[in-house]
Amino acid sequence: MSMEDLNRIVADHLAELVARLDADGRAEVASLQARMRAASDPKPYARRLLLALAEALPPEHPVALAILRQANWRAPDVLDRAAIDAEAAALLSLAGLSFEPEPAMTTNAMTTNASTANAGTPAPGPAALMDLVRRRVLATTPVLSEDEARALGRDGVARDLIRLDGPRGATAVPRFQFEPSGRPREVVVRVNRLLGADRDPWGVTAWWLATNVWLGDPPADLLGTDRDDDLVACAGVTLGED
Predict the structure, then answer these.
(1) pTM
(2) Would you say 13 and 114 are in contact if contact means Cβ atoms under 8 Å apart?
(3) pLDDT digits (tens, 9 = 90+) for 102-161
(4) What are the C-alpha distances in Å from 229 to residues 168, 215, 225?
(5) In the chain, where does DSSP find H-type helix?
(6) Which residues in 95-109 are b (16+ Cβ under 10 Å) and which e?
(7) Neighbours of 203 (CB within 10 A)
């Protein structure tokens, strides 16, 4: 079961969850949603949110069972761009659900009419959600200035550096790819070339910034820590290489 599946289950039973959460439960859920929206990695807060929802339901309730059995949902393959996009969209959707009761609704109405409880502004579609994800990445990831980016050119190793399309046609070059001296990190160039950063810069950015199950940390956090060989080996495993 994926995060997309879990989000769909919660959304389908939103009215019942709204009816069962008390004021403290709603406050906890709202706090976790706010942390999800602000965090570079919202998954730990999403897990806590799902468990808080499960605790508001009887143990035998199908939603509680789905959440408790799948609290550690299946993560998408790091090169499966569609699955990564779907998970990111599901996380944003979960963070945006309203668990506050409608003032004019009775408890019975909330319990029996999920569509009414979920009425209001339509949820953004996948393209809009992915635009939000990318904007958040650009807002939280240090990048080169426009002058620094222009100075790189596109010759030699510069062709293997991640370049992200930003708002209004601007190009963002994540700063983690560079030594303090300003030179591109050799290991970054090597890994980017392995993973195909020129073809899928956003997918390779996700590889660098997301917590890696083999490394225990986001690969970008390990740059400059004498673990270059581990980074290259992990990139090779990602591609199914020895």
Answers:
(1) 0.51
(2) yes
(3) 654 444 433 444 444 344 445 445 565 566 667 767 777 788 887 887 777 655 567 889
(4) 38, 11, 11
(5) 3-12, 14-20, 23-38, 43-55, 62-69, 81-96, 107-112, 114-117, 126-140, 146-152, 186-195, 201-209, 228-238
(6) bebbbebbeebeeee
(7) 18
